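Complex record, two chains
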Amino acid sequence: MAVYHGTTSKNVIRKLLSKIGLGKARDLDEVAASPLAQWKRPWWVKTVDKPTVDIDWDVVERFDETRIQQRSFPKYVGEEENKKLRKQQVERTRQWVQENKPNYTLRDRALDIAVRQGAVGTSFLGFAQDPKHVKDGWGGNLMTPEKMGVPPWQGTPEDNAAMMRAALIMFGASQVSFLELDDYNRKFIYSVDNDGKRLDFEDVDQAYEEETRRVIPNKARWVIVFTVQMSEELLKRRLGRAPTPFSAAATGSAYARARVIFDDTQLFLHCLGYYGLMSYWFNGLGIADAFAVMSGIGELSRLNRVITPEYGPMVRIFRLITNLPLAPTKPISAGIMRFCKTCKKCATLCPSGTLSLDTEPSWEVKGPWSAPGHKTWYEDSTKCMAYWIKATSSCSTCFSVCPFSKKNKSFMHHFVESTISRTTLFNSLFTKMDGLLDYDIPKDPESWWYLNMPPYGIDGLEGTKLE
Amino acid sequence: MWWFLYGLIMGGGISAIAVNVSLTWYVWLFIVIALIMFTLTMQHYFASIKEMEPMAARRGAVALGTPGVIFAVLAIVLALV
């Protein structure tokens, strides 16, 4: 039970709460722990004890993140080939702008670049840890419990989880889940971060950073996992199977918004008397998709990324570690990984031939860029990265053709998803219907400029009280 | 509001039929099935337009509306026989 309760008269609170069906809650702090504050998922989503992906914990080890394509691509293809591709990328970009090539024009490129502004790296400790750099909105000194003469915020793990969910959604997140680090899922924290710094755990009170390493206190045991929704209307603006600056901008926009969410969350925790730890880079610290699967954001898929029940794969996933106790959320089962076995649409339409066309997932990795120990459809992501460079835009064709990438206004989507969660009998039919109804056909990129879209091009009301 | 009006019209129509015409149970069954299919067709069509998927709207309307038309025609033919 939270220590700090509201000061409004108890009778007034009770009358108000009983009017909205929460008569048993004594105050607003207890409302936060009520079922109404819980994460409402679609009815066909089941919570389970074990995720739908098979994991061999004896094989899982903390992964060296410098092995991913963004850092090691030259090592996998050779320096000469990398230089050749990069030169071609620069020349092609310039040439297409000069030719005013449709969908790759100056303004299209400008959109992709501008939307990423803000996506310039995050901070392990959070800028709030250094009071010299952060002041509150009134230009005064940063508020902490210590300065206010009160102890750090105290709440039950359930209170805290509801509080953090409300706060992160306000900051711009779409979904928020939580995980407690144990001996198993601690292995999803990278051994080496993206910039080559080691990530070590120690029995210390405060996190700190040195030249060669970042130290995470053992008492920072909780992971906050959140998603940022991507704009479907941007994502689906391809040229045939090829990406364009529009489809690339969908990703960039999500990263830029995530930067704000990270800063706000670390600052919020700091003001409560806790800390939130991230990496210097968005995809650093730990395997986002692993945390997302274990905490119930979604299921692993043929994309070797997470597909969520609410937004399909049209999300970017992020995580940070905190010492604020949080009630964990469980993995889910919604028939998604099962559906991937027969669908194969992403792999069939992948322009670079990166994704696996095998029906069954496998334990065998395709290269050192993948963390082993789970049964999935591992990809040859060297082909993917090479294609991004040749196409001059980061690709997300697989995300955009996925049958789960939908806006969910038609009853048909809910009907299909709820049936998929219960039986595999109609999975092939649903895949064919998706093609017959032209959901996987790219949309004309140039027409995007004349749509009347909401902010960030997303429907932020879906699944909320305001819908 | 549009769904409210739709409900009023459909409810009014069914009430008018029920009061003025005597129908067998299977004709009523076909009327109800036809009504359900038309409702689903309308929902899918207008929702797909909102989703900016015009082809899905049109093809879905044909796929869902055709059985509705068939059942409606059957109901009318059987009612007249």
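Note: Chain B is about 90% helix and 0% strand.
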